[in-house]
Write a structure and sequence with these properties.
By secondary structure, the protein is α/β, with parallel strands linked by helices. 37% of the residues lie in helices and 20% in strands. The strands form three sheets. It has a six-stranded antiparallel barrel. It has a five-stranded parallel sheet with strand order 2-1-3-4-5, sandwiched between helices. A four-stranded parallel sheet has the order 7-6-8-9.
């Protein structure tokens, strides 16, 4: 994954003047030792300057962590802490920041070396709000050295995502397809998040594609594609065109990234794409996403943004799927009921034409796009990558701007069941607890489109914190029946 940041957290301890500074220094050293013992030392830097109720200390520590390449900050309250200088440090540090604090170690410290950091965290959080400074504060922000080390490690995916978004450009091609308003959304919120966007015509893309005809790199890309597909290379004749398209996109990224380090793409794939290019781009989209450059379908700009967020958090491949269709009751009764702890309405199928990376599919095969082939010659719909997605834990999520320019998001953890779909495309049987109510009172109620991003593994904790850090107004999740949604009818049977 060369399209996401590397995080280095500068740990700065603080001490109030009426508390012994040695207490904060001793606790900082214990924290750093605990972190290195559990996670190694590559992710952190121990700032030797302890802020002691001094703005000059604040400036010196800020310069020190910058000089040592830190792009994230942990303000560590070894004792009560100086609320002004510690929050000024957070204000003037340009990257993501977190606050955590030391608990009392034993009975012996209570008589003279009590740190009172539990109290200090309240003052720190109050002052952060006074200065309008965003910071990550863990669910339980006061702990011993090992617990605070875990908090810092939990901060890494959050910091990685915030850094990435502040240096991200989304490149889009073409308007949304006709009768496809679902993925249309204002771009104002992208700028509010620090994301740049470059919108291009699909005619510009086609011109660039034509200029790549005969590119000397095409054979090596074809060879790599064939190796990846293995026995699934069912339409080998389409690979040269797909390789040409992949090189077109990669060259476009390098030429157009500008001053931004990271890139995601919102691509066009129908209705004129197939007849003009002579294929569908699904497999190429899957390969770029596998390289850490997410490519969304159907010019879904916020889908590409969501995919990039998941890539930063998981440091792994993600995908974008339609929340697509219900299971036949016959399939549920045959393969799920009594075998898995899910109700019928907890299950559904997530599908897209063929955009999911080959490493995530059970038996990937190059195919043609069946839906498009209903109205077009089959040969121009070649290029999908089909197969059931591998079973395991997943997180379904999305960040979206509403039509009236509000930021909403949702996060729901679940799993892909080891159940055959008997269908086509990149597809899987998903199960999410209380999906029926989540579908109605989060997805429908808040106007989310049918595209959802999928990260693999349980990523909900970090995603939820990222959305909070970004200031998202609503973050929905699959609430249990004991916690009704605001729009849920209390009189339903």
């Amino acid at each position: 994954m060369n399209n996401i940041p590397t995080v280095k957290v500068g740990i700065v301890a603080v001490s109030r003047d009426c508390f012994p500074i040695e207490l904060s220094i001793k606790r900082r050293k214990a924290l750093v030792e605990a972190y290195k013992a559990k996670y190694g030392e590559a992710d952190i830097y121990e700032c030797p300057i302890c802020i002691f109720e001094s703005e000059i200390d604040m400036v010196n520590s800020l310069e020190d962590i910058k000089a040592h390449g830190c792009n994230a900050l942990c303000v560590y309250l070894g004792n009560f802490g100086p609320e002004i200088s510690e929050t000024l440090l957070a204000k003037h540090f340009e990257g993501p920041k977190m606050f955590c604090a030391a608990e009392e170690e034993n009975i012996g410290v209570l008589s003279s070396d009590r740190g009172d950091a539990y109290c200090g965290m309240l003052n720190a959080s109050y002052n952060l709000k006074l200065r309008n400074v965003k910071a990550y504060i863990p669910e339980s922000p006061v702990g011993d050295a090992e617990e605070c080390a875990d908090m810092i490690h939990d901060f890494l995916p959050i910091a990685r995502t915030i850094i990435g978004l502040n240096d991200l450009k989304i490149i889009s091609f073409g308007p949304r397809p006709q009768n496809f308003l679902a993925c249309n959304a204002p771009i104002k919120q992208l700028y509010n998040l620090g994301v740049e966007i470059e919108e291009n015509s699909e005619l510009d893309l086609y011109e660039s594609f034509k200029k790549h005809e005969g590119d000397e790199r095409i054979p090596s890309v074809v060879e790599d594609m064939a190796k990846e597909l293995g026995e699934g290379n069912k339409i080998a004749s389409i690979l040269p065109k797909l390789a040409q398209y992949e090189l077109t996109l990669l060259d476009w990224v390098e030429k157009h990234r500008g001053y931004r380090k990271y890139v995601a793409i919102a691509g066009k794939c129908w209705p004129a794409f197939q007849t003009m290019f002579g294929f569908v781009p699904c497999y190429v989209n899957s390969r770029l996403t596998g390289k850490g450059i997410p490519v969304s379908c159907e010019v879904d700009i916020y889908g590409a943004l969501s995919e990039y967020i998941g890539t930063c958090i998981s440091q792994d491949v993600v995908t974008l799927l339609d929340i697509n269709n219900t299971l036949p009751k016959e399939l549920y009764k045959k393969d799920i009921e009594g075998k898995f702890n899910y109700k019928f309405r907890d299950t559904f199928m997530g599908f897209h034409c063929g955009n999911t990376c080959a490493k995530l599919l059970c038996h990937p095969e190059m195919k043609y796009q069946k839906i498009m082939a209903r109205s077009l010659p089959r040969e121009v719909t070649n290029g999908t990558l089909e197969g059931d997605i591998k079973p395991g834990e997943i997180t379904f999520y999305r960040l979206q701007s509403t039509a009236d320019n509000h930021l909403y998001a949702y996060v729901a953890e679940g799993e892909i069941l080891p159940v055959a779909t008997h269908s086509f495309g990149s597809i899987a049987v998903f199960a999410i607890k209380d999906m029926e109510r989540f579908y109605r009172h989060v997805l429908i109620e808040n106007g989310f489109p049918h595209h959802g991003a999928v990260a693999f593994g349980k990523q909900g904790k970090a995603l939820f914190e990222v959305f909070k850090y970004l200031g998202v107004e609503k973050v929905g999740y699959n609430q249990p029946a004991s916690l009704p949604y605001p729009s849920e009818n209390p009189f339903k049977k």
